[in-house]
Design goal:
It contains 5 helices and 4 strands. Strand 3 (about 120-130) and strand 4 (about 135) form a beta hairpin. Strands 1, 2, 3 and 4 form a 4-stranded mixed sheet that branches. The mean pLDDT is about 90. It has about 140 residues and is of the alpha+beta class. It has helices at about 5-15, 15-25, 35-50, 55-65, 75-95, and strands at about 1-5, 105-115, 120-130, 135. Helix 1 (about 5-15) packs across helix 2. The two termini are about 25 Å apart. Helices cover about 50% and strands about 20% of the residues.
Length: about 140
């Protein structure tokens, strides 16, 4: 069994939820709308760090939202508009001069796994950066 940040959060929130999801491996048949919106936003931010233009970022988000029936509902359409606004804001904020300018992008969405005392942990690193002095930022 793997331990992830999500599994630890599930246990902290509700041990029964943890049991159902990670031990019994029962999943809801549909992802929750908030998770879909979060995934859409994450696609946009990943695209930014891959040096894509705002138009490309929005196109990737639109492709994702266009592939899920949630975003065809009235609530989903509103969620899609919100995600687009968040991605535009992220692009605007991160494109402005800031402490992240000039940092080397080492990787985006890097998967990792590590065993510690017989327990295997795994997850993803959203963003890994390096500055001119070799310091790493996660």
């Amino acid at each position: 069994m793997f331990i992830t940040a999500s599994s630890m959060n599930a246990y902290d929130k509700c041990p029964r939820l943890y049991k159902y999801r990670y031990i019994d491996q029962k999943q809801s048949s549909r992802p929750q709308p908030a998770l879909l919106s979060g995934s859409a936003f994450h696609i946009g931010t990943q695209s930014f760090w891959e040096k894509d233009s705002l138009d490309t970022m929005l196109a990737k988000v639109s492709q994702f939202t266009g592939e899920d029936e949630h975003f065809l509902t009235d609530a989903g359409k509103l969620d899609a508009v919100k995600v687009e606004a968040y991605v535009r804001g992220y692009h605007h904020h991160r494109s402005a001069a800031g402490p992240w300018q000039g940092l080397e992008v080492i990787g985006v969405e890097l998967e990792w796994a590590q065993e510690f005392e017989g327990v295997e942990f795994k997850g993803k690193i959203d963003l890994l950066l390096r500055d001119s002095e070799g310091r790493i930022y996660i």
